[in-house]
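Archive transcription. Copying these from loose printouts into the bound notebook so they stop getting lost. Printout 1 of 2:
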Amino acid sequence: MRKVVSVSLGSSKRNHAARAEFFGEEFLIERIGTDGDMNKLISLVKELDGKVDAFGMGGIDLYLNGENKRYIIKDAIPIMEAAKITPMVDGSGLKNTLEKTVIEYINQSIMPLKDKKVLMTSACDRYGMAKALHEVNANITFGDLIFALNIPIPIKSFKAFQRVVSIFLPIAVKMPFEKLYPTGKEQDIITIKYEKYYEEAEIIAGDYLFIKKYMPVDMRDKIIITNTVTISDIEDLKSRGVKMLITTTPEFNGRSFGTNVIEALLVSLIGKKVNDIKYDDYDKMIEKLNFTPRVEYLNGIPFDEAK
């Protein structure tokens, strides 16, 4: 049996394990959180190195992407360097492949996204999704300054977002990561703030912990496009009135895992060295596995039945 593990800087409350079979081979897929403890995370990587088939780096990104440049987050480097034998990925490969195709799938098979008002909580860490939404002519508000830096300045165009990325990312990747993204116990805290940006949007898209960070109590009729959600997250969204939840990664035992662990799964199946894997390799393997987004109608009825 192969084993894929997401070693995460995030909360241990979100830990999960599932078994799945691919191409006749059994896999154990596991997520282990360290509650924001970097030293514990690095020790865990060293302990499991060589004993698992692939690592996902969770709760922190290694790379943030611009249009033609990739930036390395300084605080993630020691985690990557702790894995001497087992390959490690942070999910950025899927954010530029799977998540792009998910937007195309939604646009073609679920609902047209042209002119839909979309709040992207942070597009810097999901550049593929942001670009795909731009290409289908969604009306996007980029919330990177709001949700990452608590600066209440929405970015209203893709061109302006690209300019901000070129200025902001070289600085951001050198900052302490906890200043940019909730880690450990901070992941369990919701501060109701910036409600108007949620209220103005029909769709809220991006990393779930960013979506959750300032989420209003009233989310009636909203559509969420995100990655990792637990059963309790889904119940919370349902209680807030969210109409539809779309997760970009597939469900295993009632839980969608993060892009980092799904990318680690693909790395173990592709069988190449990480540095030799191209986006096309991910796309081909995703097609072989027939991965499609999970769509749940939390409140109301499906669009087809409503017509």
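Printout 2 of 2:
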Amino acid sequence: MKKLLLVSATLSILLLGGCNEDDDTNSERGLELNISGLEDLGNTAIYEGWLIVDGSPVTTGTFTVDENGNLSENSFTFDASYLENATTFVLTIEPVPDSDPAPSDVHILAGDFSGDNASLTVGHGAAIGDDFSEAAGNYILATPTNGDETNENSGIWFLDLTGGSPAAGLTLPMLPAGWK
């Protein structure tokens, strides 16, 4: 049995394992996911794993996560050649119902295989593509005040006032398609 250890910088540890009997004629492999840290997506979305084989996505299966973080499905079986030839693993969020057999644009984690191992991150180009470590911001906390020349609303405002006049105070990376 081969084991693939996938580590997520934001979610926790993922364990991806492929099982293969010693018989080389076995054309199916098992994929086992042991994931923690994923959220319950409710009734409108589902998680789906994808192997990238020769540049094309191959689904490893779908699963949901309950309010306690338990996966509805953690074992998947598919053609052994897919796992052997996979270069990347991608985890997406798919709509329910999902009539499109291709991955959605909402890729949350991805990682390249090096032998039987892959390290999954949000910063991988096939995922969100940025780990948000460079995100920065300035904010003000405003209270409701009304005066002769002001009519402010209360709240937290991402403003930079260091230059004397209000300027954008939040720097975020550009998000890929599917993210807002």
